[in-house]
Amino acid sequence: MYFCKDKQFQRNMKIIIINGPNLNLLGTREPSVYGNESMDDYLARLRKRFPNIEIEYYQSNIEGELINKMQQAGFSYDGIVLNAGAYTHTSIALLDCIRSISTPVVEVHISNVNGREEFRHHSVIAPGCKGTIQGFGLDSYRLAIESFMG
Ligand code: DQA
């Protein structure tokens, strides 16, 4: 249960996981890098693990749709867990969006991007995020959710 500041009422914490391009293919996409589990199966496990947190999920391959969703969620949700996929390394528009909303954003990567090609080492969105979790496989999402629970 999540206690609001004035403790007048209680409500469940509300978090949205937003996945960017090609992450709809989790489970089949480069399994040696991203594993064999689909996001749907992983989400079911996450929701079981955190029954008191409302975990919404959104995925798009389109930059503007990711921004629309972040703007929709970004003034009422308690946290956004964002895996922007390759837009991580290119999108000033996503950085501007993260800076325009009030909900804190945690950047997530399934793989350890710093151990991969050099073009993945730089995150354009990191300066706007609360923090970054990377390299723990799908468990990176769980760790990001836990970062909002403290
Ligand atoms: C990724 C890493 C990015 O470099 C890549 O473009 C992705 C996935 C990850 O979760 O490891 O699509 O964000």
Would you kindly provide a written description of the structure presented here, covering whatever features stand out?
With 150 residues, the chain is of the alpha/beta class. It has a single domain (13-147), classed as 3-Layer(aba) Sandwich (Rossmann fold). Helices cover 29% and strands 21% of the residues. It contains 5 helices and 7 strands; from the N terminus they run βββααβαβαββα. It has helices at residues 31-34, 39-49, 63-73, 92-100, 139-147; strands at 2-3, 10-11, 13-19, 53-59, 79-83, 105-109, 131-134. A 5-stranded parallel beta sheet has the order 4-3-5-6-7, with helices on both faces. The protein has a two-stranded antiparallel sheet with strand order 1-2. β1 and β2 (10-11) form a beta hairpin. α3 runs parallel beside α4. It starts with a strand and ends with a helix. Bound molecules: 1,3,4-trihydroxy-5-OXO-cyclohexanecarboxylic acid.
